[in-house]
TrEMBL record:
Record-annotated ABC transporter domain positions: 31-270
InterPro entries: AAA+_ATPase, ABC_transporter-like_ATP-bd, ABC_transporter-like_CS, ABC_transpr_LolD-like, MacB-like_ATP-bd, P-loop_NTPase
Protein name: ABC transporter ATP-binding protein
Organism taxonomic ancestry: Bacteria, Bacillati, Actinomycetota, Actinomycetes, Streptosporangiales
MF terms in GO: ATP binding
Length: 313
């Protein structure tokens, strides 16, 4: 049946309706988490680290994940890196279903689709190898061929070209983190995940590390997710996603004003079924508990504390 003709049978009508249904949630996203759940069981106690987390990231985005300690940031990164398996939900990166990968696919995924940097600088680099040798190591392990200048080009791009012949001991903490990013990029991954890359650094050095992540994102087109506690971050990346209690709770978008000023605007997240989490300091300032009154206006929705006369006891 051509799309212009009227459907004739019940099946054709259903097919026609399915065609009109529009794209599925997250279709086209480079990274998709849909209702992601991760429960840890230790000594008979269950800890729900991710409680139905939704997240969509487009190809080529540079996104920071922030949130209080214990909110699930590292758990999310471990799932996305293919190190850990979620308990339920959907996690898809570059078209690969992370819950249904074979062991062979998982190895390929971890070797060539994602690159990862750890917070502990010492864990990222082998101490007896130079920066250049550290970058070439994952290439050799993956059995790939890269011309000799590949490592030097990456180090140059990240502003640590001068460190190519030095061992980690001969570099500062910020230089080590930038070399670690080069290692993560060595196998030309589509996605780089960085766990607290500036956790042990002062603010000036942190800016250099964020600059390196931006260079990788801009010049190589790689999608970057960085987990951080760094208060600077909202002005360093395009989008900051806040996580609270194992769910995404807020987003901050960075834009440049017409005067060239960098502005970070915070938004609440509206989930797929229309749920919205109001910030706790807003609700407690107005004594909002259990229910609120909503009013649809022409260009916004008003939210009021439920008062007397609204049927609240
Ligand atoms: N292997 C594990 N076994 C049991 N519980 C765990 C495990 N890993 C994490 N958790 C728990 O899951 C929750 C989320 O932890 P996670 O490390 O993801 O948080 P986080 O936001 O990265 O915290 P931080 O900023 O302190 O690193 C916490 O309550 C933590 O205690």
């Amino acid at each position: 049946m051509s799309s212009g003709e009227a459907p004739v049978t019940e099946l054709e009508e259903l097919e026609e309706r399915a065609r009109r249904a529009g794209p599925a949630f997250g279709e086209g996203a480079h990274i998709l988490c849909d209702n992601l759940v991760r429960i840890y069981k230790t000594g008979g106690v269950e800890v729900v680290a991710l409680q139905g987390l939704d997240l969509l990231i487009d190809r080529g985005e540079l996104v920071a994940i922030v949130g209080p300690s214990g909110s699930g940031k590292s758990t999310l990164l471990n799932v996305l890196s293919g190190l850990d398996l979620p308990t339920a939900g959907v996690a898809r990166v570059a078209g690969m279903d992370l819950l249904a990968m074979s062991a062979k696919d998982r190895l390929r995924y971890r070797r060539s689709i994602v690159g990862f940097t750890w917070q502990q600088t010492a864990r990222n680099l082998l101490p007896y190898l130079t920066a250049r040798e550290n970058v070439l190591l994952p290439v050799r392990l993956a059995g790939r061929r890269e011309h000799r200048g590949h490592a030097d080009e990456l180090l140059e791009l990240l502003g640590v070209g001068a460190c190519a012949g030095r061992t980690p001991m001969e570099m500062s903490g910020g230089q080590q983190q930038r070399v670690a990013i080069a290692v993560a990029l060595a196998n030309r991954p589509e996605v780089v995940l960085a766990d607290e890359p500036t956790g042990e650094l002062d603010s000036e050095t942190s800016e250099e590390v964020f600059g390196a992540l931006r260079a990788a994102n801009r010049e190589l087109g790689v999608t970057v997710i960085v987990v951080t506690h760094d208060p600077l971050v909202a002005t360093q990346v395009d989008r900051t996603v806040g996580i609270r209690d194992g769910r995404t709770s807020s987003e901050t978008l960075r834009r440049t004003s017409t005067e060239g000023e960098v502005i970070a605007e915070e938004y609440a997240v509206l989930d797929r079924v229309g749920r919205l989490q109001l910030p706790r300091d807003f609700t407690s300032a107005l004594n909002m508990e259990r229910r609120v009154r909503l009013e649809l206006e022409r260009d916004h929705i008003g939210v009021w504390p439920a008062g007397q006369g609204d049927g609240d006891e």
